[in-house]
Amino acid sequence: MFSGYVQRSLDYKGRLCLCKSLRKELGRYPVVVKRGKHIKVYPESMKNQFRPSQIFEGRIDEEYRRLILPKAVLNSLPLGKKIILIGGGDHLEIRPRKRIPYSEIKIKEAKELSRRGIVVVADGDRKEVAIQTA
């Protein structure tokens, strides 16, 4: 079961560091599905729930503790280097992270956005806020 969200960096080869519990839950070859402007990553055990034309095969590299996303998916989506991983129950969702100046958003506004389902991540040290719409 995947829940919550975390900020991560994606390198130019499509590699993404993941903690051991996520790697274990995804399996050796997780299922990668492109949905609009987002990527969804399902555990290997869910492979037969999708048509073969819908899926791409990712790979878990245990030696370097990371998920390697297929180049075909990365080339078709402008994710950028900074991303957000969002737990969606049975899958992980990978979305681009957008930034706005910290001064443009107030705490009350952030709480209201959060209630409406918009992910708000504040970084007080850098004076910026990352916003991701659902």
| Fraction in beta strands | 35-45%
The CATH class designation of the largest domain is Alpha Beta
Radius of gyration: 16 Å
Corresponding CATH superfamily of the largest domain: Transcriptional regulator MraZ domain
What fold name stands as the CATH topology of the largest domain? Answer: Chemotaxis protein chec
Mean pLDDT: 79
Strand order of the largest sheet: 1-8-9-4-3-5
Please describe the biggest sheet, giving its number of strands, its sense, and whether it closes into a barrel: 6 strands, antiparallel
Description:
It is a single chain. The two termini are 19 Å apart. The protein has helices spanning 20-26, 71-76, 107-115; strands at 5-9, 15-17, 31-35, 38-42, 55-57, 59-61, 66-68, 82-87, 92-96, 98-101, 119-123, 128-132. The protein has two domains: 5-96, Chemotaxis protein chec, CATH 3.40.1550; 98-134, no CATH class. The radius of gyration is 16 Å and the shape is globular. The strands form three sheets. The protein has a six-stranded antiparallel β-sheet, with no helix packed on it. Strands 2-7-6 form a three-stranded antiparallel β-sheet, with no helix packed on it. The chain has 134 residues and is of the alpha+beta class.
